[in-house]
Amino acid sequence: MKTADLIDRHxxxxxxxxxxxxxFGAKRSFSGQAQTIKCFEDNTLIRAQLETPGxxxxxxxxxxxxxxxxxxxxxxxxxxxxxxxxxxxxNGAIRDSAEINQMETLVFALATSPVKSAKEGWGKVGIAIxxxxxxxxxxxxxxADADGVLVSSKRFA
Length: 157
What we know:
CATH superfamily: Ribonuclease E inhibitor RraA/RraA-like
Structural class: alpha/beta
Helix content: 10-25%
Shape: globular
Number of helices: 4
């Protein structure tokens, strides 16, 4: 179901992640339960999560809004596809955007940067994160398409 239709029918149960996202990838939409990561200019934990079975979940990453360094590129996007992640919401930057745009994935990110991230293992997995005025906890439902990203504690058909 389109996010516009979801918000029309269930506005009281949905929150808009209000960020100036750009969309990358060939997929048109996704929905799934959130797995969360909080990190800053370091993609070690992102890689570790994407190497595990996604089970149609959505990886939601609070990268602190940094657009100085990319924390996701084509190799990690490919891991997400291979391991069954529904999509990625990233409060940060990606690189390899031309390649990702050709892939069967959908990534919402703030910007692009050619600079790769640190690999120190900084951050936390599976905690409540705050992005775009919304607190997102592991297990929340994420719905995303060309119109935006919505979050709910409820699953909608």
